[in-house]
């Protein structure tokens, strides 16, 4: 593939058109991939036992730990930095990505070895789902994922920077279809615990491969530019710290519940939180892959329009979050009963409670605003607040009221960010109380739609 300039990524001329096109592609891609995942979940939950989903849940806790705790924000650096189309800058970022991937692979295998050693020499040291003898194998398989992620072309980030998401989304949907088919075929022949982590490895490797051969832009080579590395570190140092806290918060429910529940019970919890996480994923994708690049471009070129651009980003995100919270809260039992067999009926309660957390998740747009303007230190403060609340409220809630108390603790921690976000917005002249409370009127509409289908 020959070197290419930014013009090689075709896109409509105006920011509004590019943002609308990117949002459309992301929304379409999300709908298709979630339809595939739902179909996969329906089939695989009948082929695989709940404890296998619990094992995969704990495996994702480990891989998320090593990935998030070493997140230097390389993609965000490409989007934010004025040199985001400079081949020397891109090659430096790619070299850093590869080094990080190899280090994470080694770290995960050391974690798997530590688990095996614990099972052999100190039986009983690990409890709950952590004590499952198959968990080290899951972690070892997943250790290949960081290598695949490190090999991804920086043209993925360039596509996000230019809001040219068409080919990126097409690649994801195509790979999701192929991997789902592969996992179902493997589960029919070998309904074993390794099927789920292997699917993740194949997915990540395929995305990395396609990023080099289907996305326009300069071909990556190993390289080093001291100024580029310095700029990336200056931008990313707070992202690294905030990503650590984001991991501890995002995976905190699994970290804590993993020591309180069996693998089967944790598998039921994972099914219950699946639809909430799916909704959060599309919201995050819209905010991070459309909102942040758009806000970064406005901050670079038209800073006087930043307040208007922020509100324009908030409106659709708020609508999706608040409507989704009402819908899932009302229809939770019906959805779980329709999609899954009787073994997963308790997941409806999990879905109903945690769906309310979507109301607070709408402030993810503010996170992207802070990244776009380079104020990443504020993300660290937010992370500290949420983690203190999570790691105190969940154990206390579980000890007092069991699973319902733990769910209430998770919801309380998710909501703790709201007053902080009000202050952040107010300090920057972004706070509009009529907007903040007016969008909550969408909740009854979502609840009504959920009530109709239930």
Order of helices and strands: HHHHHHHHHHHHHHHHHHHH
Give the overall form: globular
Radius of gyration: 22 Å
Mean pLDDT: 82
Explained architecture:
With 454 residues, the protein is an all-alpha fold. The chain has one domain (8-447). Helices cover 78% and strands 0% of the residues. The chain has 20 helices and no strands. It has helices spanning 15-47, 50-68, 74-80, 87-121, 135-142, 144-150, 155-161, 166-189, 195-213, 226-250, 252-258, 263-301, 306-339, 347-355, 358-361, 364-372, 377-415, 417-427, 433-438, 442-453. α3 (74-80) packs across α10 (226-250). The termini are far apart.
What distinguishing features does this structure have?
78% helix, mainly alpha, disordered N terminus, 20 helices, 454 residues
Chart the SSEs and their pairings.
Elements: H1 15-47, H2 50-68, H3 74-80, H4 87-121, H5 135-142, H6 144-150, H7 155-161, H8 166-189, H9 195-213, H10 226-250, H11 252-258, H12 263-301, H13 306-339, H14 347-355, H15 358-361, H16 364-372, H17 377-415, H18 417-427, H19 433-438, H20 442-453
Short description:
78% of the residues lie in helices and 0% in strands. With 454 residues, the chain is mostly helical. The radius of gyration is 22 Å and the shape is globular.
């Amino acid at each position: 593939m020959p070197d290419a300039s930014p013009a090689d990524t075709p896109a409509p001329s105006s920011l509004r058109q590019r943002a609308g096109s990117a949002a459309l592609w992301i929304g379409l891609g999300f709908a298709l991939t979630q339809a595939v995942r739902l179909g996969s979940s329906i089939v695989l939950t009948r082929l695989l036992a709940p404890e296998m989903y619990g094992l995969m849940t704990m495996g994702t806790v480990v891989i998320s730990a090593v990935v998030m705790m070493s997140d230097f924000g390389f993609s965000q650096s490409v989007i934010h930095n004025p040199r985001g189309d400079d081949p020397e800058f891109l090659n430096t970022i790619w070299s850093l990505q590869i080094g990080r991937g190899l280090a994470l692979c080694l770290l995960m295998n050391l974690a798997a070895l530590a688990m095996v050693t614990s099972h052999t020499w100190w039986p009983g040291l690990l409890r709950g789902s952590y004590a499952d003898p198959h968990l080290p194998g899951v972690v070892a398989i997943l250790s290949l994922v960081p290598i695949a992620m490190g090999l991804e072309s920086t043209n993925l980030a360039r596509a996000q920077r230019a809001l040219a998401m068409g080919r990126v989304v097409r690649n994801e949907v195509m790979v999701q279809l192929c991997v789902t088919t592969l996992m179902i075929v493997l589960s029919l022949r070998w309904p074993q615990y390794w099927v789920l982590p292997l699917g993740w490895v194949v997915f990540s490797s395929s995305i990395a491969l396609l990023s080099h051969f289907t996305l326009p832009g300069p071909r990556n080579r190993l390289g080093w530019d001291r100024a580029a590395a310095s700029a990336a570190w200056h931008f990313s140092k707070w992202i690294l710290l905030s990503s650590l806290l984001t991991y501890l918060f995002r995976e905190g429910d699994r970290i804590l519940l993993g020591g309180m529940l069996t693998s089967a019970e944790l598998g039921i919890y994972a099914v219950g939180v699946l639809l909430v996480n799916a909704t959060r994923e599309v919201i995050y994708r819209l905010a991070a892959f459309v909102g942040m690049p758009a806000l970064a471009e406005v901050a670079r070129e038209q800073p006087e329009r930043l307040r208007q651009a922020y509100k324009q980003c908030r409106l659709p995100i708020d609508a999706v979050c608040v409507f989704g919270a009402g819908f899932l809260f009302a229809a939770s039992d019906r959805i779980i009963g329709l999609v899954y067999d009787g073994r997963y009926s308790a997941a409806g309660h999990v879905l109903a409670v945690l769906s309310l957390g979507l109301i607070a998740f709408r402030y993810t747009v503010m996170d992207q605003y802070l990244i776009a303007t380079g104020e990443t230190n504020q993300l660290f403060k937010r992370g500290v607040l949420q983690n203190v609340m999570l790691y105190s409220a969940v154990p206390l809630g579980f000890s007092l009221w069991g699973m319902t108390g733990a769910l209430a603790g998770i919801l309380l921690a998710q909501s703790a960010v709201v007053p902080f976000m009000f202050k952040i917005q107010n300090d920057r002249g972004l706070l509009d109380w009529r907007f903040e409370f007016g969008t909550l009127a969408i909740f009854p509409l979502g609840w009504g739609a959920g009530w109709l289908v239930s």
